[in-house]
């Protein structure tokens, strides 16, 4: 490595790769940028040796999709896939004359941090099962009487205020709790997620929300992805700006583009819940009315049956009276016949006796 590469790095804030690209593509600045070395920070990826140089991609720690082609003279190279602080000279390469200028970095000094950072592609492969795993049903959360929702967000952030401002009229339909973390520190986020995502029966939904800007790549740290992969409670994410997308979004059960959409989404879910409850009450009322009509019909049928039974009983009583009367008549007739028979036998007996005694 050259003597320049061995010099201590200047004590200044590293220039962001995206800012540097924007500046480097300004043709009026190319000459001045290529003379004075500047300090940048990034992750070394994909090294290749060619003609006495080691070429590699320098990845922005905050925006993994932003990379710059870089090279260092000689065969000595840093450990790859870790955060590096580099003293560089900006060079430019014209890909199409008069059309496109592509910046590249000549590395003249390296300071290794020792902080290993897996590439986005490596992390995707590692967590591919979690990404494609069956998602928990978020909508079922709002079927509960008073769902418990925990918002994991930045300490002192505005996400809670923004969300609750959109929940006017629905705030009393859910239990709300804030879990404040340091979003730029993966360990802080991972610890919080492990805690809340395992509280089955105590927590019904976890929402992780933060705005865009510096430190968003921390949410794609392996610790955070691992914590989100092992969960028993549904997870909703709302991270960064609309064009930001993290692996954590892919692992989550549901993802919203920006934090400001969380409140609107929750309000929509709670409004549907209110409508379902109103429909349920209306249907219950209709069913009750139907049951009442059915019961009234049964009461009328019972009344009619009772009237018929009373008629039948009255007829039986009438028939019984007639039968009793006939029996009385028969009894009277029998007495008359018995009396007549007795008189007849007396007469016959007297006549026979008279014949014997010669009275006749």
What would you say this structure looks like, in words?
- This protein starts with a helix and ends with a helix.
- The protein has ten helices and ten strands.
- The strands form two sheets. It has a five-stranded mixed barrel. A five-stranded parallel sheet has the order 7-6-8-9-10, with helices on both faces.
- Helix 6 (159-165) packs across helix 10 and helix 7 packs parallel to helix 8.
- The longest helix has 98 residues, at 260-357.
- The protein has 360 residues and is an alpha/beta fold.
- It folds into two domains: 3-117, Nucleic acid-binding proteins (OB fold (Dihydrolipoamide Acetyltransferase, E2P)); 121-274, Response regulator (Rossmann fold).
- The chain has helices at residues 3-6, 17-24, 30-33, 120-126, 128-132, 159-165, 186-196, 222-229, 247-251, 260-357; strands spanning 38-50, 53-59, 67-73, 82-96, 100-116, 148-154, 175-181, 205-210, 235-239, 254-256.
- The relative contact order is 0.08.
